[in-house]
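Input (structure):
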């Protein structure tokens, strides 16, 4: 009986030791996962690749819920709701003041082309997870103002930064893309756009517009750097 008791205590001690080691290992793995960049396993976006499908459950697509355009409502959004049937100009912006200035040159040039929304959809995604604490109301206010000015554009309020993670977009920057109807990325620029970027993007848009009768801006009018 004494021998059996010793063996029993031995196995209990071994089991407790195994459990402790397993718990420590799980904690280490959890810490490593927390420290790693969120987008480390996400595929880098580049010209020629297909834009990954994505969904935003928290906040989402912004639309006015009143005729006076004073109050916004948000609905869960999936990229397939906006992309997939026509050429698209996609902007992903950190939710910080002044970020939109990075691609203003390109955005203004595309607006000047006056392309019908049936031919070119404009998608703007604001990463509210990449913002200064306490400025969430500024993001909603900015979306409201822009939705009034550009009612045909699609504005997405991404509260959790899901799109940035799925598309491997770094923080505190602006990303501009021209995406074909099949999801292929035709143009990609991260950060400040230049006149060369504008000329290249407009050339791509001109080439890929479905309508043959649409007169668009001549890219020769855009000077190179």
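Output (sequence):
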């Amino acid at each position: 009986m004494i021998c059996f008791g010793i063996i029993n205590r031995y196995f209990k001690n071994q089991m407790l030791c195994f459990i402790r080691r397993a718990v420590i290992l799980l904690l280490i793995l959890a810490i490593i996962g927390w420290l790693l960049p969120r987008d480390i396993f996400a595929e880098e976006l580049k010209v020629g690749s297909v834009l990954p499908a994505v969904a935003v459950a928290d906040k989402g697509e912004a639309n006015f819920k009143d005729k006076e355009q004073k109050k916004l409502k948000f609905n869960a959004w999936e990229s397939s709701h906006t992309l997939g049937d026509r050429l698209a100009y996609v902007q992903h912006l950190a939710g910080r003041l002044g970020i939109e200035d990075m691609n203003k040159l390109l955005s203004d040039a595309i607006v000047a082309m006056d392309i019908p929304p049936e031919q070119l959809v404009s998608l703007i995604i604001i990463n509210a997870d990449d913002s200064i604490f306490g400025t969430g109301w500024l993001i909603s206010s900015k979306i409201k103002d822009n939705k009034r000015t550009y009612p045909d554009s699609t504005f997405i309020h991404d509260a959790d930064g899901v799109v940035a993670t799925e598309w491997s977009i770094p923080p505190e920057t602006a990303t501009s893309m021209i995406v074909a109807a099949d999801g292929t990325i035709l143009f990609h620029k991260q950060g400040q756009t230049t006149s060369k970027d504008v000329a290249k993007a407009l050339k791509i848009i001109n080439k890929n517009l479905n309508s043959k009768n649409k007169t668009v801006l001549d890219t020769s009018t855009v000077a190179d750097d």
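Notes: The helical segments are 2-35, 79-82, 104-113, 136-149, 162-166, 195-208. Strands lie at 55-64, 72-78, 87-94, 120-127, 154-158, 174-179, 185-190.
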